[in-house]
Amino acid sequence: MTQNSRRDSPVEHGFPHLETVHASLTALFRRLTPEGVRAHATSFAPADAEFGADDDLHLGAHRVASAMVRALGLPDARVVVAFRPMRDAATVELTAGPEYFVEVNDRFRTHRRDLAAALAHEVTHVLLHRLDLRLPTTAANEILTDTAACYLGVGWLLLDAYREDELTHQKLGYLTPEEFGYVLAKRALLLGEDPSPWFTGPRAYEAWVRGRALAARDLRRAPLAAAGGLERLRYARARRARRAGGGGGGAPTGGVPTNGIPTGGVPAKGSARPVTAGSAYRFESRPDGQRVSFPCPVCAQRLRVAMRGPLRLRCGVCRTVLECDT
Hints:
Number of helices: 9
Largest sheet: 3 strands, antiparallel
Number of strands: 13
């Protein structure tokens, strides 16, 4: 797991990894099933992350690692923690188990406040290894690991480890602070959990608020019935233009601009902007009529329905029931 704590290395912000985050959410729901995801409804307890300066280093690290293993539902796994000088925050040796070796940066000998955050990422690696859940590239797998850690209840520690001021820039993991907030908000909306009281610094809370705003917006995007008036008007205009234009391919009607916040709209004539996993709706012509596809606001699986006006549908991946107006 990477760390960023140098004065000359500003922390990346915004939502540059949304496409991979959405792919990670879909993969997680597919592999664990909705029941498996909900089995992690209780987040890692702040008390289990506490590690005082007077605690024995190795006994304390073992205690925190064992609590992390239990929180992620790996009762037959044992994590051995060692400390050594290294560039990264931590690494894990992935084997058949049941014993896994995690090496942690020497600075956590004294910066014990963030040891649980480093272990959260590495123990989640162990879980995904055992689930045989991976994405095509190493970079995508690291995003998957952070996303899974957040969605399964231990990743709030990674956001809590984010601190940034005139003298210090610290962030653990591969998501931006706002993306950590976004995934945590997705979990909160599904499970009714509010992690904000656990954040010990103002910057982590600010990132959570920004991520929460984007997660809430996912629930109000057309063709969902909860979309706002302007969004509905934009969708209706795009639908009329699509019907007037007749057949053709599935030209998208929304995308992800440079700041990573999805938008809706009608593309210029002849344009063919690629549609990402988290982008807005797009229309498709089928022999049986016009259809609209859009991402599920919970698991990001792309849904495809006929354009018939108000309807209710159930996502086949996360089984969330959605009210739509297509």
